[in-house]
Amino acid sequence: MLLYLHGFESSPASPKILATEQHLQLQNRASLLRAPQQPAKMSENLRYLNALIGKIDEPIAVMGSSLGGFWAHYVVSQLQLRGVEARAVLINPAVSPAQWMPRETEQRIHPYTAERYQLDDSDRAALLKAEQALSEQVELLVLLQQGDETLDFRDARTRYRHQRMIVEASGDHSFVNFSRYLPMTLEFLRVL
Q: Residue 162: how many CB atoms within 10 A of its CB?
């Protein structure tokens, strides 16, 4: 199985997920892809992912972009604790997201699901709990573009300096021309 975790306020219809699905279809492997719509609240997403982790008992590949990259690292860390083989590809991943999570007094509306929600201290606590559970002993491939206008690539470059990494000049948060890396990333993940 290939689990793809989308970024904050994104969806399974994100361009990177669709490109991954299309590439897998060309290889007759599309049935391997799972790209769930994750809960908008961090506390609910942590519970959701923990339930999902509890059901996985065979080798798995995980991809995630932005906040989904943070969650992908969490998932493979937890699976490793359970003795399940897992690798992940992190694309312009969020690093220490609790630090930049806004304190909000108003409800947000998820742009894809129209879910109304509000981030609060339970969400910050969920992110901190997940961050403390990240393992350095997992196998990751990190893709970064220096032109990321949302997250500072240097944070991820420093955080993941002991992992396999590709850093490109320019680009943006969407990771421009992501599809050209699909053959290599899927090979790293042992999907192809």
A: 9
Residue 1 has pLDDT above 80, yes or no: yes
pTM here is 0.96
For residue 100, what pLDDT band results from cuts at 50, 70 and 90?
A: confident
Identify which of 132, 151, 21, 126 has the alpha carbon closest to the alpha carbon of residue 81.
132
In the chain, % of residues over pLDDT 70: 100
- Cα 84 versus chain centre, distance: 18
Which two structure tokens, joined as six digits, stand for 170? Answer: 């320019």
DSSP for the chain, written as a single string: -EEEE--TT--TTSHHHHHHHHHHHHTT-GGGEE-----SSHHHHHHHHHHHHHH--S-EEEEEETHHHHHHHHHHHHHHHTT--EEEEEES--SSGGGTPPP-SS-EE-TTT--EE---HHHHHHHHHHHHT--SSSEEEEEEETT-SSS-HHHHHHHTTTSEEEEESS--TT-TTGGGGHHHHHHHTT--
Would you tell me how many other CB atoms lie within 10 Å of the CB of residue 95?
A: 22
